[in-house]
Amino acid sequence: MWKLSVITWAFEAARQGFGPAQVRGVKMTTEEAVDKIGAMKFDGVEIAVWNIDEFYPKREAIKEKLQAHGLELSNICCNDNVYVWSAPVYTNPDVKVRDEMVQRFEKTLDVAMELGCKSVSIWPGSDVIPLKIPYNKAWNLLIETLARCARAAEDRDLKVPLEYKPENILGSADSTLRAVKAVNSKNMGVLLDTGHAIVAREHLPTVTELLRNYLLHVHVDDNYADWDRDLPPGYVHNFEPFLKTLKEVGYKGYLSLDVWPYEDAEKEVGFGKTYLEKLILDLF
User: Fold this and answer.
1) What is the pTM of this model?
2) Burial category of 267 from C-beta neighbours within 10 Å (exposed 0-12, middle 13-18, buried 19 and up)
3) CATH code assigned at 150
4) Count of domains in the chain?
5) What residues have CB less than 8 Å from 42, skipping those under 6 apart?
6) Cα–chain-centroid distance for residue 99?
């Protein structure tokens, strides 16, 4: 039976509003988010790190929170490339940029080891289409940078799931699988975000079968196939066929809610948790 986690940003972030209410909902610190997730009786927490230098001083306090609630750390999302640069990083022709990203990734790996986490994911969300350089050159730089990250993870015996999303250089399951095979590391695989797959018009059971031997982590969220709304699962689509296929391919990892609530984070996260728990109970 799968364990459930939720990404802290469900409680750290707040949706943009309109008129006088420019920000709606409650915005929490990472520590407060862990407290809330623990109170909601999740098995684990997933942490989105947007700047490892800013996160680093908080690591001991977060470790204490995790231990206090008996929570596992299911994954750390290394998103420095999006927050620190907001420009091409993994495919940047400037070797100094790529070097710094690898260094930040290595620092995130070390923090993961301190916190007892066995997985640090990569989402090249700042390497967007259209690319700044010819595709083949960008692809080769991407593989070179990812290979360096994979070697660093191998040295620490940690896993590296690659997350894809339409309009990024890794925009589909196929392109991500091609990247994983090019890097050729036993520590690198795929992070399947159901919301991203839906926007890419991928059929969830089929793409699960495609990734069966490479699937390291799963984000569960929903949308109307128009854009990545990060709605709770079950809000639009029936996830039962997807979960059945996950079971068939032998996936053993976490199901992690990647939800960006509009107003009431606890209500929306709770909706997704209850929905998944019912489906899992029926399956097992």
Assistant:
1) 0.95
2) exposed
3) 3.20.20.150
4) 1
5) 4, 5, 6, 71, 273
6) 22
